[in-house]
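seq as requested:
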Amino acid sequence: MRIRGATVVAALLVAMPAMSAAAQATGDRARLVFNVSGALVDGRGLWAVPRQSIGVGTPPDTLALERGIKSDFGVGFSGAYFPGEHLGFTADAFLLGVGYSDTCRPVRPIADPRNREVCDFIDANDRPASAVTLNVGVVYRVASREFISPFARASAGLLFSNQSPLALDGRTNSGEAIAIYTDPNQSRVAPGFALGLGTTVVLGKAYHLRWEVRDNIVRVDRVTGATEFNGARPPHEGVFKHLISVMVGLDVILERQRGRRY
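struct tokens:
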């Protein structure tokens, strides 16, 4: 019994340093990260004109027009470099499917049936569009060596879009195109910003699962009033819109710092 008890004590004394070292070991830390994410981008109202005359027929009819930014899917690509435990630098490209959804309703009974056709066309046809933001910024993470690591980001850059937020037209059933608002500048470059909160979850030494809620703050032109005649560029102003996106993606760890023992 004494020999067996002494053996157990000796084994414990040998194991204790190893157990202590394992308890004090730190996990790996990602230093250089590439990410690809899918996103759902929430829409927003953009502008409304309560009374716009449309000049098909005599007398002209009056329509109430509205435009909003549609909810859509997006995709993002980003890279981040962390020289230390917490603060890092990031650059990303985010493709937002920011098409426009238009609505039209007569303010009073329609005098010319062609104007009803134009209004119905506007209601039934959305305007597909896309926009790309290119941003650079900083990201701050906590618990960088743990299984779950929350982070916050802030970035600024430019928004490139391929569809005018001002131009609006309709068609009659015979195919006649009626331009209500025109805009010579279909594409735009505008400032954009992004604020995000999220977390990463370790899937393996080379991969992390990432989710993030991001506020994409983008500058968009909006119509501010009716025009005297159709086919003119409407009065407008630039406003910043908050497009909230929920992003889920995969981090690929290109460089990592191995954990240490103390």
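The mean pLDDT is 86.
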